[in-house]
Amino acid sequence: MLRGDLVPDSTHDQRLLDRKGPTDWLHMDPWRVLRIQAEFVEGFGSLADLPPAVTVFGSARTSRGSADYDMGVRVGHALAKVGYAVITGGGPGVMEAANKGALEAGGISVGLGIELPHEQRLNEYVDLGIEFRYFFVRKTMFVKYSEAFVVLPGGFGTLDELFEAVTLVQTGKITKFPIVLMGTTYWQPLLDWIKGTLLVEGMISPADPELLHLTDDPDEAVRIIVESNSKPEQEIIEARVRAASEEENGT
Ligand SMILES: CC(C)=CCNc1ncnc2c1ncn2[C@@H]1O[C@H](COP(=O)(O)O)[C@@H](O)[C@H]1O
User: Fold this and answer.
1) Distances (CA, A) of 246 to 169, 200, 210, 238, 250
2) 88 beta partners
3) Most exposed residue of 9, 123, 155, 219, measured as fewest CB within 10 angstroms of its CB?
4) To test the ligand 1 pocket, which listed residue (62, 95, 151) has its Cβ within 8 A of the most ligand atoms?
5) 183: which DSSP letter?
């Protein structure tokens, strides 16, 4: 109830039906919540019928014809060949390469794009595309609709996506979720730091580095994913519980 000076000088109906007035309310947070909600609804609605999918991450800056681009094409191709839909961020570079490989292999090629300050369209190899306004909504879609992540060389964006996934697995939010790093030369120093510093300093558990698989071979990446996804969920949970209790007991 509002009385006195707090009574507004117009009703909700008037404000809804009258076209007059400033539009800056459109950019206010309560309205944004609805837009965020709409983005979730659209994402869930468009992706719900996808077959099992794998998301491929990697640099937006990788040039066509480079070794990493070629690796992206090959892994997209290999994933599609065994029936996985391939999801990427829909941009250029490694994302485009993986979409290209998937499409050329006759698979389903998905791009979950993001609105950026400079204009950018979904790459030409995307067959099912959604453009998101919000990074965090898009990230939910990557995780919810894939069974694994494959991560090729990349920068901050790629590292962000990689470490989000590792954290979700480490904290048990997602269970059957292999993460495959492709590009041994590029990723080995990071793995060395994880084992040599994070583990030694006690920032992670001894079982945690095992969450990351490393290979240069697209077929090996696919094998790791298929094998891991065919393990019963219970087996994975038990292995992690065992590792945690061994750590607690110092064995
Ligand atoms: C050339 C340029 C900067 C284009 C930006 N265009 C982008 N389009 C779509 N997703 C992107 C883009 N930039 C970053 N990302 C996200 O972050 C990752 C790549 O970031 P980075 O280039 O590694 O750090 C991708 O897996 C993608 O999900």
Assistant:
1) 19, 17, 15, 12, 6
2) 111
3) 9
4) 95
5) -
Say if residues 152 and 72 touch (Cβ distance below 8 Å): yes
Q: How far is the CA of 229 from the centre of ligand 1 (A)?
A: 27
111 CB less than 6 Å from ligand 1? no
Question: What DSSP assignment string belongs to 219-241?
Answer: HHHHHHHHHHHHS-HHHHHHHHH
Q: Is the CB of 62 under 6 A from ligand 1?
A: no
Q: 142 pLDDT band (50/70/90 cuts)?
A: very high
Residue 19 domain-assigned? Answer: no
Q: Tokens 């609105």 belong to which residue?
A: 115
> Does 114 reside within a domain?
yes
**15-46 confidence digits (pLDDT tens):** 777 766 677 777 788 888 998 999 999 999 99
Q: Any idea what the CATH number is for the domain that residue 51 is in?
A: 3.40.50.450
The tens digit of pLDDT for each residue in 177-215 reads 999 999 999 999 999 999 999 999 999 999 999 999 999
What is the DSSP code string of 49-66? T--SEEEEE--S-PPTTS
